[in-house]
Design brief:
With about 200 residues, the protein is an alpha+beta fold. The protein is built from five helices and five strands; from the N terminus they run αββααβαβαβ.
Length: about 200
């Protein structure tokens, strides 16, 4: 049997821990890779499930209930399934307008935004319009920040302005108007009325 010199044995003992450490690092790196891949697959699966659920809630089940002349039904667990109408309305946001690259489409969005705001103001709903001004000051410009509004442009202070109406507020407003039979500009606000199956706990 060959006996290794003591110097070689010491060298092997020094290398072994490093090899073990490298193996552990590689193993953790592979676990990280596998987890990221698994998360990506789960996110894709979740997106697919949500899409199928939305179709079931807004198309398949409402259509079948309409065919069978059912307005609601109760599950074994006591939860009642009902069909409710929902309203979606939209106003082009400043960010959507800024991102639009087609000049003609961008101009149409700007016109529609102003038409929406004008209609709301003329129909006693101007209070829903939220006007937000974001001002960019340097760290030591507290005094200038307090002066704020009217002299912003003259002083060359850069700021961003956004005007809009919260989606939930807009949808609820037009749902109320439609239920009252009011005449509203469907095309201007791109209003969509749909049906959705939802759960309502408790028996009828």
């Amino acid at each position: 049997m060959t006996v290794l010199p003591k110097s070689i044995i010491n060298l092997l003992e020094d290398v072994a821990p490093a090899s073990n450490t490298l193996g552990a690092v590689t193993e953790m790196g592979q676990r990280m890779h596998d987890m990221l891949h698994e998360i990506a697959e789960l996110e894709d699966l979740l997106k697919e499930k949500k899409s199928k659920l939305l179709r079931l809630q807004t198309i398949d089940l409402p259509d079948l209930m309409q065919e069978t002349n059912l307005k609601d039904f109760t599950l074994n667990n006591g939860e009642r399934v009902v069909i409710r109408e929902y309203v979606k309305a939209s106003i082009p946001s400043n960010s959507a307008i800024d991102k639009q690259r087609d000049p003609e489409v961008k101009a149409d969005m700007e016109v529609r935004q102003q038409q929406c705001f004008e209609w709301l103001r003329e129909n006693k709903a101007g209070h829903m319009i939220k006007n937000k001004v974001e001002v960019n000051f340097d760290k030591k410009e507290d005094t200038k920040c307090q002066e704020f509004t009217t002299e912003l442009r003259d002083k060359g202070v850069q700021y961003n302005q956004s005007v809009g109406v919260p989606h939930g507020t807009l949808d609820a407003h037009f749902a109320s108007l439609l239920s009252e039979g009011k005449d509203i500009p469907m095309d201007t606000f791109k209003i969509y009325v749909g049906r959705k199956a939802t759960f309502s706990k408790g028996k009828k």
